[in-house]
Design brief:
This protein is mainly α and 151 residues long. It is built from 5 helices and 2 strands, in the order αββαααα.
Length: 151
């Protein structure tokens, strides 16, 4: 199976802007996106917008913020801890200890297409505290509103 490099679908970096300019040059005016022209060019391909739009997928409060955090560039660096591994000279495996999301972001560029398996070990049942809120009990009224059962 070929390795495919995934890019976040909602991040518009310069390379993606350049691709869009090649495909839809009419959607740009003075080097910036003209949203009205782009909407007109996309026509029927646009998804519904607004409060009444229905989309299939997983939704939860804070999803937009979670995406922003996930695609914020990491400021860390992976540093090998020599002497911590087993048969380090012959072994092709790497043990990385760190915050899961930050480590994955660091691996994304340098090791894309080179990693066959990643095992993430959350701190469940280890006695360690979770960094994130693990209490997701919502009041019934909030649940009914989020699930569309209460307007």
């Amino acid at each position: 199976m070929p390795h495919v490099r995934l890019k976040p679908t909602f991040t518009l970096d310069q390379a993606r802007l350049d691709e869009l300019k090649k495909v839809l040059p009419e959607a740009f005016a003075d080097g910036r996106i003209n949203w009205e022209t782009l909407r007109a060019a996309l026509g029927q391909q646009l998804e519904e917008e607004g409060e009444n739009a229905e989309h299939f997928g997983l939704n939860w409060p804070g999803k937009r913020k979670a995406r922003q955090i996930a695609f914020t560039p990491s400021t860390g660096t992976l540093v090998p801890a020599k002497g911590e591994g087993v048969n380090e000279d012959e072994n092709k495996n790497i043990f990385i200890e760190g915050e899961n999301l930050e480590v994955l972001k660091l691996l994304q560029k340098s090791y894309a297409g080179k990693i066959r398996v990643i095992y993430l070990d959350p701190p469940y049942n280890t006695g360690d505290d979770l960094i994130y809120n693990d209490n997701f009990a919502d009041p019934l009224k909030d649940y009914l509103r989020y699930s569309g059962q209460l307007v």
